[in-house]
Amino acid sequence: MVSSNQEVDKFKVLIAGGSLAGLGLALAFEHAGIEYELFEKGDFAPQLGASIGLHPHTIRILEQLGVWGDIEKQVVPLQHRMHFDEIGNCFEDSHVLVNIEAILERPIVFMERSKALEVLYSHVRDKSKLHARTSVANYDETAEGVIVTTEDGTKHHGHILIGADGIHSKVRGLMAEKISVTDQSLAKAINEAFTSEYNCIFAVSRNEGFLPDGMVHNVYYDDYSAIAAAGVPGLVFWFLFVKSSTLTRMPNCPHFVDEDAHVYIQKYGSSQVGPGYAVKDLWGTRVKATMVPLEEGVSPRWYHDRVVLIGDSVHKATVNPGLGGNTAYEGIARFTNGLVPLLKENPIPSLEQLSKVFNQYITGQAPRAKTVVGLSGSITRYEAQDNWVLKFAARHIVPWVSDNLKARLYASFSSSGPWLKYLPLPAKDNNLREASNKSDRSIAPTLITAAIMVSASAALWQILR
């Protein structure tokens, strides 16, 4: 079969994956007037998965795309965070989230992933470009573009292909196959770029008095931890993180079924999460729940010829700080910020010109992605008290750091995130560049000190393991 749309006189992007990253790309391209087609192997906004955390730098992009208003109506900004030890003592009572919102003028929020997808999908004006239940089976490249073949045998013509299809990316696997013809070691490194050392049950439960809206509870045990957050009225988003007995590497990371989650609940269900309730109480009021391995890593290769990867398909972080999806939106901004001006200068750019955009995107995004993946992994191990150094820091050092300093450190990180340069910024961000530069300079000594402390702890950790 051949696609009815074979335009070769206008630049077209083919997107694999219709989750948060794919739909974000679709909206970004629609706002820029760039032709695209998107292929999603399942349904849009499926009732799978649990929650998504949105941070201020992502909310800024969502404002530019015109979708934040609909999301804001559904959420309660997170404001209060309490950290408990294994016997229920609160060793850190923090309002850092309030401080962050005061500095950045945007909150940190949690919401159902399916609801976020519904909002994104609803804002795509031309839904004829969104193909549900349409899996990418293969692709071929020509001198002028790329041809994607879907599972039903239909061929779709475009100029570039973007793999936004998640950690189990079909596009990444196909790209590695093509690279293996000339470089088998690189292909192997791409296929084995992600490891898993922790497993996670993530779920949505009815909030039957477990914690007030806007509250987050963290509890720290030895080799496991839990988080519960009330980010939407009537619901609790919660996570149980457990260190595995072995570290696995893709493609051999584990796959879990419902029975595996029940085994975990039997073992850890009595563990307290917050005052007066335990894991089993949340499990008992669950609306949906899934158990997955927490893959982490960054691919050594992000593109090949006319194919480029974005989001979890190329960098995957553990979920504790909730930065993974936000990092995908940073990638969307960096990539489209390069592609949009190129197409204005040359409506059908050459492969060499496209490669410059790909490399510009990677140069900006890779260091940030590596930071997020490393930071997220450290927080996962910190909360599960992976060793006595982290346990000591959690109980006796971090609680003494002021909320104001923590907020300033986070704000420096968040405010340095990219935005869509081809769309207007919200009025509050008119002086964003200047404010960001001043913030970075004023907090630089603190960041350096923090980096030294983290590096020293990491070095000591490795020596003692």
Automatic annotation (TrEMBL):
InterPro entries named in the record: FAD-bd, FAD/NAD-bd_sf, FAD_mOase_fung
Gene3D superfamilies named in the record: FAD/NAD(P)-binding domain (3.50.50.60)
Keyword Transmembrane helix set for record: yes
FAD-binding domain ranges (all copies): 11-185
Subcellular localization: Membrane
Record's GO cellular component terms: membrane
One of the Pfam families matching this protein, by short name: FAD_binding_3
MF terms (GO), sorted A to Z: FAD binding; monooxygenase activity
Residue ranges of the TM segments: 224-242, 443-464
Protein keywords: FAD, Flavoprotein, Membrane, Oxidoreductase, Transmembrane, Transmembrane helix
Predominant place of localization: membrane
UniProt keyword Transmembrane helix present: yes
Superkingdom per UniProt: Eukaryota
Family classification: Belongs to the paxM FAD-dependent monooxygenase family.
Record's protein name: FAD-binding domain-containing protein
Organism: Penicillium cataractarum
